[in-house]
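Risk mitigation, structural track. In case the binding assays with magnesium ion fail to produce interpretable data, a predicted complex structure has been prepared as a fallback.
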Amino acid sequence: MKSINFLSMTLFNTSVSVDIDKAIEWLTKGECVAIPTETVYGLAANAYHPEAIAKIFEIKQRPKFDPLIVHTDSIDKLHSIVTDIPERAMRLANKFWPGPLTLLLPKSDRISDLITSGLETVAVRIPNHPMTLALLSKLDFPIAAPSANPFGYISPTSPNHVLKQLKGKIPMILNGGNCMVGIESTIIGFQDDEPVIYRLGGLPLEAIEQCVGKLKVMPFSSSQPKSPGMLASHYAPRKKLYFHDLSSCLNNFLPLEVGVIAFDKFNPSFPEENQILLSPEGNLLEAAAQLFSSMRNLDESKLKAIYAESFPQYSLGLAINDRLSRASVREQ
Ligand code: TXA
Ligand code: MG
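Fallback model:
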């Protein structure tokens, strides 16, 4: 899917730097800057600057029906972004912010329809990265930031991932090292005041349920998704990825042509040298942090296809399986 080209793109000499003041300068001028968060790198712009927001869509080739997350650094500042914070949203915010949680709340007039794709709710979060929190504390506007990857591709978890795909398109990548969580935030909205998970993510389901009780997890669908992160085909590498479907994989490829993403043990059907163990110690947090860079490494390797095992169905294993499952589906 392509967005309409209505802006002339400037070609930049993209710098990778730790200079927070320089990032502020670019953002204030209405340019986009890649910023580190604990989940994935974001492609940030001034949320109150319509042209800057339009540049995000242009750079990512993102369809306009896909709304953006607004980032801020304090619950105080949230009051100019949203009009209401239900009791359970406040409980989640107090417990998990800064952290890998995004809340869908009724938007204030300051938030444009371009950010929310015309929805009445806006996605907001306080990310947990010291550099980005320092950046946000010095800004007098919030920043809108989707993941800093071309639409539909794997989210970046290092400055180098961003550079490979957005070099020349943005003036600067704020270098905050590798993302510690490595998988996008968990998105929670409210239906008749009941919390609902719109996207599984970096916050384990069990931790959320401990805070607000059992909650519904929306299934993903490819038609009219409420959240395009819910599209059946998303987060995908370019190579064919088989998720937990060994027979299809081996019907189409020889074992030595396939790169494998496994949890803590090698899969006996493939040569060990082509396998990545996301966490030899069996730690799902570590596995999540390694997932996207491993998918990229295999996508860039000489191997012809990727086989991914399914992960345990709890904690971050749920979000890992969600991403692998969507990465394995191809739009016709
Ligand atoms: O961890 C993250 O959430 C990262 C970092 C950069 O903060 N951001 C991120 O943004 O993953 P993005 O744009 O790649 O994914 C945001 C998802 C999209 O699937 C979008 O459809 C959904 O959030 N979203 C945004 N606003 C929404 C709304 N008002 N209602 C439903 N879904 C919404
Ligand atoms: Mg994304």
